[in-house]
Amino acid sequence: MSRTSIVFKQTYNRCLTMLGRCEHLPSEPELGTALGVSRTTVRAVLARLAETGLIRWDKRSKPRLRPPSPEDYFPPEETDSPAEIVERRFMRRLLKHGVAPGSHISEVELAREAGVGTTSVREFLIRFSRFGLIEKRPNSRWLLKGFTREFALELADIRQMFERNSAAAFLALADDHPAWSALDRIRAEHVAMAASIDDRYEEFPELDERFHRLVHNASSNRFIIDFYDLIAMIFNYHYQWNRAGERERHASAIQEHIAYIDALRSKDPERVRSAFLAHMVSARSTLLRSLPAS
Amino acid sequence: MSRTSIVFKQTYNRCLTMLGRCEHLPSEPELGTALGVSRTTVRAVLARLAETGLIRWDKRSKPRLRPPSPEDYFPPEETDSPAEIVERRFMRRLLKHGVAPGSHISEVELAREAGVGTTSVREFLIRFSRFGLIEKRPNSRWLLKGFTREFALELADIRQMFERNSAAAFLALADDHPAWSALDRIRAEHVAMAASIDDRYEEFPELDERFHRLVHNASSNRFIIDFYDLIAMIFNYHYQWNRAGERERHASAIQEHIAYIDALRSKDPERVRSAFLAHMVSARSTLLRSLPAS
DNA sequence: GTACTGTCTTTTATGTTAAAAATACAGTTT
DNA sequence: AAACTGTATTTTTAACATAAAAGACAGTAC
């Protein structure tokens, strides 16, 4: 009938961790800024800590009575917001049933499945619709437009346009811009991962995203940066969809990234162009090969 | 407490217009497809028509008893959905108070103002947020990011990238593609409007949008086409914001469009490039000049 | 057999509501 | 005076309820 208290529970858990390290908790406003929540929530947490006998709470003094133990924490399944639950459920459905174009999505059904209200589902679907994979017919059901060949091609075209723009913007950054040293660090991570690729190839997607986001940030264009949310979502999905030849694909992507980074550091526009193009072409074909047979 | 019956009312009104022209209404499924609604709604409309004495309704026979008069129609203010009401209110607010960056938007307040439930407001804001002008901090208010100089520049950059892509795609269309004749027709409209610009310059925004959408459709890329929704919204907003020198701006935009169209018809890529670039540059400076002083 | 109608079952749209969380303000303590 | 606490006031979150609208299916008319 009302909202869940996930903020309270998450904050409580983080406060326990904090309590493990210090004998006295700081003032309420200080706790609030440290934990990123309002004083109302802080006070609710303090009240519960006092009630459980973890601290004594009298106005300004909040001394610890005993260190927190693992069973004091709220279990992780209770600290997820409905929005997150719905998102996970929905993505899992996509992975399981595939994204058959033309099929419908029922709000109630998804709500039942996820164990949340229809409101949360509906808001999630509206937010998700910005990715262009689903569409709402007024007064009717949600239409799954599907991860089709056309979708993949359109996506890849925009990506290439944006990446080209961002790479050019990166070259225009001042020599002492922090992005350059970030680039050096991320290059080192690539080299390290390449050295032990057999053990660590599963970590690549995360590195991949960080690298491309670094480049895109140079454009400082919110539309380009936002668009990468879609790319990241699709890639994440696709990584789970088709794991055949994963190690090889990741290994060669790492080499492409390194070549791309070196091209950026050389500041030779022509070299950047060919390096990024090579990467785009292989990323595009990987994406297309992963499409469900149609 | 429940949804409003705007579909019913709109359908009823359109059915009245239909009834003005024919003595007998067709079958229920036929009416449904003609009016774009379900049979359930059609039957509700028929029931009401019979009740009001406009028709006699007995199974398949639906003869007209009297022609509809103006007072039979539902008044226009009753045929707006909450979603539309909220949208209008919100845009009016933007126009009136401006888009001061950093100010907040309260859902309840907007709901009270528009006379609708908070759900409708919330869903509108989520949908609207895809334009990047507002942003939500979890558990907190909506933040108005504002139509700033940065926003305008980022928008113009993307627009230019996309327009370039679409223009190239247009050139690649087959000679017998219907878009070419549509282009000819739209050129004629430009010429006609230019001839009586003093009377008709206010009609330009609509023509402007149709022209650019025609070009963008050639890309057949959903992301490019979707992005034009944002452009159109901003332009519509901006047209109302700053009307100084409107006639002159529109007049020269018409000439730029004609040059652009002629370049496309010449199929000379270089000529297209310079024509579209000229238009982009002037569109960008118009947009920037319209910014509220900051 | 095809198209239409009657009726029943889902699903969506949207206002209402209650708890959670944020915010605002007045009063205290240091 | 500055920072903190106590308390009251908004605002958001999210479930829920219900009418509107869509969709499904069997029976009926042509």
UniProtKB/TrEMBL annotation, chains A, B:
Region (Disordered), start-end ranges: 60-79
Gene3D superfamilies assigned to the protein according to its UniProt record, in alphabetical order: GntR ligand-binding domain-like, Winged helix-like DNA-binding domain superfamily/Winged helix DNA-binding domain
Domain HTH gntR-type positions: 11-65, 86-144
Pfam (any one): GntR
KW Transcription (keyword) present: yes
The keyword DNA-binding belongs to this UniProt entry's keyword annotation: yes
Record's protein name: GntR family transcriptional regulator
Keywords: DNA-binding, Transcription, Transcription regulation
SMART domains: FCD, HTH_GNTR
GO MF annotation, one: DNA binding
Native organism: Pseudaminobacter soli (ex Zhang et al. 2022)
Regions crossing the membrane: none
Signal peptide start and end residues: none
Domain GntR C-terminal: 154-282
